Automatic annotation (TrEMBL):
PANTHER family: BLOC-1-RELATED COMPLEX SUBUNIT 7, BLOC-1-RELATED COMPLEX SUBUNIT 7 BORSC7. The keyword Chaperone does not apply. GO terms for cellular component: BORC complex; lysosomal membrane. It is found in: Lysosome membrane. It comes from the Eukaryota. This is BLOC-1-related complex subunit 7. The keyword Iron does not apply. Belongs to the BORCS7 family. The gene is BORCS7. One of its GO terms (biological process) is lysosome localization. Keywords: Lysosome, Membrane.
Length: 106
């Protein structure tokens, strides 16, 4: 009978070890899934950061191009002001010439 009791205890021990082992395997599987999700999330974050950096570089280029365009427009504005002043002087001189011509013709 002692042999039967020992075999029965050994069987119960085997079942409890199998149960604990199954729990551990399930727990490890859950942990691996959670770890995989976290790695994928980290990979996505790195991808988003890379995209944000590329967008920032593009925006910086656009800003630099806009600054360059503004400088060129300021130069053009200055030249147009000089031309306007020259035209105004010519108009004034033209009026003076017309007055002089009208006095000469009288």
């Amino acid at each position: 009978m002692a042999a039967g009791g020992a075999a029965d205890a050994q069987a119960r021990f085997g079942h409890s070890v199998k149960g604990l082992l199954t729990e551990k395997v399930t727990s490890c599987g859950t942990d691996v899934i959670a770890l995989t999700k976290q790695v994928l999330k980290g990979s996505r974050s790195a991808e988003l950061l890379g995209q944000a950096a590329r967008n920032m570089v593009m925006q910086e280029d656009a800003i630099l191009h806009s600054e360059d365009s503004l400088r060129k427009m300021a130069i053009i504005t200055t030249h147009l002001q000089y031309q306007q002043e020259a035209i105004q002087k010519n108009v004034e001189q033209s009026s003076n010439l017309q007055d002089q011509l009208s006095h000469l013709l009288k």
